[in-house]
Amino acid sequence: MGEYKYIGKSVPRVDAAEKATGHIKYMSDLSFPNMLWGKIVRSKYPHAKILKIDTSKAEALPGVVAVVTWKDVPGLNGFGIVIPDQPVLCEDKVRYIGDAVAAVAAETKEIAEEAAKLVEVEYEPLPLVDDPIKAISEDAPKVHDGGNVHLHTKIVRGDVEKAFKEADLIVEHTYYTGRQEHAFLETESGVAKLEEDGTLSVYAGSQYPQRDQMQLSRCLALNPRKIHVVSYPVGGAFGGKDELTIQPILGLLALKTKRPVKIVLSREESIISYWKRHPMIMKYKTGVKKDGTLVANKVEIYADTGAYASLGGPVLNLAVEHACGPYKLDNVYIDGYCVYTNNGVAGAFRGFGVPQVTFAMETQMDIIAEKLGIDPIKLRKKNALRRGDVSPIGNKLTTSVGTVAVLDGVKETDLWKNKDRIEKVDKERPWIKRGFGFALTYQGTGLGIGLPDYGGAVLRFREDGGFIVGVGIVDYGQGTGTSYAQIVAEAMKCPVEKVSVILGDTDLTADSGPTSASRGVYTGGRAAVIASNRMMKILKEKAAELLSVSPEDLEAESGYFYVKNQPDVSISYEKIAMEFLKTSGHLPQTEGYFLMPIADIKIKDAFGLPHHIFAYSGHLALVEVNTLTGQTKVLEGAEVVDGGIVVNRQGFEAQVEGGYVMGMGYGLMEDVKIEKGIFKTVNFSTYIIPTVKDAPKRIQTVPVHDPEETGPYQAKGIAETVMVATAPAITNAIHSATGIRIFKIPATSELVYNLLKEQRKNESTD
Amino acid sequence: MKEFNYLRADTLSEALEMLEEFQGNVKVLAAGTDLVVRLKGDMVKEENILDISRIKELKGIYAENGIIHILPLTTHTEILEYPDMKTAAQILYDACKSVGSPQIRNRGTLGGNVANASPAGDTIPALFVQGAKLRLKSKSGERVISVEDFFTGPGRTVLKPDELLVDIYFPTMSDDEVGFFKKLGQRNALAISVVSVAAKLKKSTEPNKFDKAFVAFGSVAPTVIRGNRVENALMDSVVDSPEKIRYIAQLAWREVSPISDVRASLKYRQDMSINLLYEGLLELYKNGWNRRS
Ligand SMILES: Cc1cc2nc3c(=O)[nH]c(=O)nc-3n(C[C@H](O)[C@H](O)[C@H](O)COP(=O)(O)OP(=O)(O)OC[C@H]3O[C@@H](n4cnc5c(N)ncnc54)[C@H](O)[C@@H]3O)c2cc1C
Questions:
Q1: H-only helix segments in A69-197
Q2: Cβ–Cβ of B268/A754 closer than 8 Å?
Q3: For B281, nearest residue in chain A (alpha carbons)
Q4: How many CA atoms lie within 13 A of A20 on its CB side?
């Protein structure tokens, strides 16, 4: 990799200075003359018929400019990435406590809030659907007329029942995972504004401006060209801003009032109203031979998607696809249900269904290793998928497969090297127990088969000889923008400081698909390489013309073209830019589009499956459990990650560290509690996320350099896999420390304490 | 959030004047780290807010005749940074250290923590076992009460509408006194106590015996409470083994009357009252009943 100037280096983030100094303007910082404030009226019941909506009192309040209800929606009163089943404003029924029923625009935020309280809605409560398994039964009350099963995906390969008969050991358990909240710093916020030419500008942080534009055009019955979406910068997203949130309501209010309208959600409204990670109930039955060979896996998955579809279907399918882990398995039976309930709404979240099944499968693997007395790494290696193998769901893995490289890399971590020196029981405080845990995972890059998946980039040559790269992908903290700058600088042979990046704008950037599925660097990066190669050709030809040589004689370096073997004959990019302006009056622009490669086969009845490219990671944890209180402290963590070739070393480490801590929160504390459809944890006083004091003192990052030929500079995406297996690494470590098994996350202190208490009870009765 | 009338007093007498004038329709504001949260949630019925944060007479720490006085507007950080506080009032010191985060400790005041009267207020159990007294003052006079007599329920105190808390004081810990403050939260910072326990023991000349014992629990009753049964057991026994400590700690079960909420269940809080006390005592025992260095 020595030949690269920027790829693999710790190039500082392009947005570091403006973020560190507070100069960056997020959408919640925007303000326009004559601006109104919007407020959304939300349902009072988790499931009810709407009998009547009376807005007259709200309209009469001085300072109120408009009140909108379903009657004001000019287009389709529905949105949703897969099926638009969620009303912009509910007409006859509400399906969760955050459902939007009306909205107000007023001169001040306070008046808007006051007016929202004056909107009178008469409801007739309907029976609640809050248990995803009960919801499946025929006689359960229905959230949607079509029934409560939004999607059922079943994949059967081989014959599990026969294989179980041949197995030496069968491990069977049911697993439960929590409802994790994205907890981005910036809540759903933004401004919509009608421009003089009739264009509707929508400034709201999100993950895919062009799809927002499409969905908004459908709801608002507006030509998409008359909608300008700006979705960058964003104060965090993690999947929670993939779907629309407040944008259609902002649009409605701006169209009706013809004035700019702003909405900033409170933390409470944000938590109640929008997407969460799907809680899942997973029944696992795994059969294995004495030597550790996996022979069968039977999995049932129930995903609680809440009131509306959004991305619930694809989330379930990713869970199904990854349910068996990166292991060879020829007999599988995976039966998944994505179920509607009145428990809020669930949607996209970093990992997208994979953290749930990874928790289950990696606990199964840990149990098997223990029962058979096989080292956990050896057990995984024995079953590891390798390049050329057929995956558990039946596709051949033809791209890079890092399973073995990751497992070998584990031995390079300090945690592994020192694991036998861990003091299992604290000498001074013997009620403190320590343990080490491991978990392995993988995560598909990109959208999967059947979904058009492409990257797009526009590259503009700048007057000063630099470049502007415009990609529709949004950098919501993961560092994609900096990677694009590095990729363009590398491809254009120019200083990275001379590359500026524009993201997430329907006017200024190329459609590059959603910022999701670990695909940002991979797809947008490849598109940027293609656009760069085209630009290079144009510049080279111009330089050749100016130097009166042939293009083949030229070599580019640091913003100059040199004539080979004549180092003193050169021309700068800046000079070339001036020549372009002189001769044609404008500077060249190129575009690059990249179609994502797809797998060899399509899995029957499983939309989007399989994926073709995967990133792999191994997660390690050293924990300390206080057996008096059940508190778990993660002392140290490590991750071995196969993301192909690393584009930005510092960004890579930041992803690992952030992902690890997010996975730790998922494993130990995070769960939005909903009882009878009502949210019990609506802000950070009760919805607990880790602080810096909870983070391990060190998280080691060990990249595995396994090049992925199809990627930009042979890179893959890592944004999700880095958080996916942290929870089971930690719960496996809790087991190694204490002997108790965690089948439900978050493993809160109380849960761990209760299990320890039960263990003591059983010991004393044995 | 509803509107309210903002008033500011720059001296103590001004503040007492205003308190008398508004007769109960006024809420005192110190740093506001508790009050502003309540204001935002529309949980304050008073229409006037009296900002006392700039009253210099109510800020500061001094020691006099073996008594430490902490004036109510002193912040948690100022307490932690006061020379020798760690030795003189180790239990309160540890409690202040556990409050919120650096930002909250830099603003939040001891007076606010006490007057807020939360059963989860972290300095309160520490002040209980440090034997603190509170001086309450109004325009017409003043009185001194024990911190234990101050609270009447969650968020409720014996403060009269025209009274202000003006001094919090307690004796310096002597060399033969040891103790601890232990807090169990849902995480390691910015956590509201699920259970907290404070204890102070005055060692007897005989080994493993105590002349005096003070134990208090937070978050397990409508107010912070003393654990008299535990105290009596500690004073009446030779505390010479982990088993003995366990046995005594189990008495905590009879002291506490917790509830279940979204943070923890009743049962867990009950068990934790025992186990935190046990852990704290055991740590001291293992250290030969000496303070940790
Ligand atoms: C994020 C966060 C984390 C927190 N973490 C903790 C924690 O870990 N542990 C903990 O115990 N607390 C915690 N708190 C609560 C709070 O910070 C503390 O209780 C703090 O000490 C309150 O002091 P204050 O000056 O801000 O009080 P204020 O909010 O100004 O006042 C609190 C109450 O006391 C009354 N009051 C204040 N001073 C006087 C006086 N001199 N006389 C009469 N009445 C008075 C006020 O009228 C009000 O009712 C936290 C708060 C926040 C926001």
A1: 109-118, 160-166
A2: yes
A3: A429
A4: 6
CB A322 within 8 A of CB A442: yes
Q: Whose C-alpha lies nearest to ligand 1, atom 49?
A: B116
Q: Is B120 on the interface with A (CB under 8 A)?
A: no
Taking contacts as CB-CB distances below 8 angstroms, the residues of chain B near A110 are 1
Q: Quote the CA–CA distance of B275 and A288 in Å, as a whole number.
A: 41
Q: Considering Cα of A595, then A600, then A603, then A609, what sign does the dihedral take?
A: negative
Chain A residues in contact with B263 (beta carbon < 8 A): 686
pLDDT digits (tens, 9 = 90+) for A735-756: 999 999 999 999 999 999 999 9
Please state whether the peptide bond connecting residue A125 to the residue before it is cis, i.e. omega within 30 degrees of 0: no
Segment A45-86, tens digit of pLDDT: 999 999 999 999 999 999 999 999 999 999 999 999 999 999
- Per DSSP, B143 falls in state E
Question: Is there a contact between B265 and A750 if contact means CB atoms under 8 Å apart?
Answer: yes
- A310-344 pLDDT, tens per residue? 999 999 999 999 999 999 999 999 999 999 999 99
Q: Which strands sit side by side in the sheet containing A467-471, from one edge to the other? A: A499-503, A467-471, A454-461, A589-595
Q: Whole-angstrom distance between the N-terminal and C-terminal Cα of chain B?
A: 48
Those residues whose C-beta lies under 8 Å from the C-beta of residue A639, and which sit 6 or more positions away, are A617, A618, A619, A620, A656, A659, A660, A699, A700, A701, A702, A722, A726
Element (H, E) at A357: helix A354-372
Contacts of A428 in chain B (CB under 8 A): 286
Longest dimension (CA), chain A: 93
Say how far apart CA A476 and CA A271 lie, in whole Å. 19
Confidence at residue B209, expressed as pLDDT on a 0 to 100 scale: 98
| Residue among A240, A307, A314 nearest A274 (CA) | A240
Is the pLDDT at A1 greater than 60? The verdict is no
Closest ligand 1 atom to residue B99 Cα is: 8
Please report where in the chains the tokens 């480490």 appear, as a residue: A653
* B70-86 confidence digits (pLDDT tens): 999 999 999 999 999 99
Average pLDDT over residues A680-703: 97
B187, B266, B272, B278, best to mutate vs chain A, most A CBs in 10 Å = B187
Listed in sequence order, the residues at least 6 apart from B287 whose beta carbon sits closer than 8 Å to its beta carbon are none
Distance B82 CA to ligand 1 centre (A): 20
Q: Which two tokens stand for residue A372?
A: 């058979």
Contact A635/A622 with Cβ under 8 angstroms? Answer: yes
CA of A629 from ligand 1 middle (Å) equals 27
**Cα–Cα–Cα angle for B189, B191, B194, rounded to 5 degrees:** 135
CB A64 within 8 A of CB A104: yes
Task: Give the 3-state secondary structure of A671-699.
Answer: CCCEECCEECCCCCCCCCCCCCCCCCCEE
The CA-based angle A310-A311-A313, given to 5 degrees, is 110
Question: What is the ipTM score, two decimals?
Answer: 0.96
**Alpha-helix residue ranges (DSSP H) falling in A35-120:** 56-60, 109-118
Q: What is the pLDDT of residue A764?
A: 79
Q: What is the distance, to the nearest Å, from the Cα of residue A483 to the centroid of all Cα atoms in its chain?
A: 18
Q: Does residue B190 belong to the interface with chain A, where contact is any CB pair within 8 Å?
A: yes
| pTM for this model (two decimals) | 0.97
Contact A628/B275, CB-based, under 8 Å? yes
CB A591 within 8 A of CB A532: no
If you search the block for the tokens 């880790």, which residue do you land on?
A: A690
Contact state of B268 with A753 under an 8 Å Cβ cutoff: yes
The pLDDT of residue A167 is above 70: yes
Is residue A202 within 8 A of residue A192, CB to CB? The reply is yes
Q: What is the pLDDT of residues A260-293, one digit of tens each?
A: 999 999 999 999 999 999 999 999 999 999 999 9
Mean pLDDT confidence for B128-144: 98
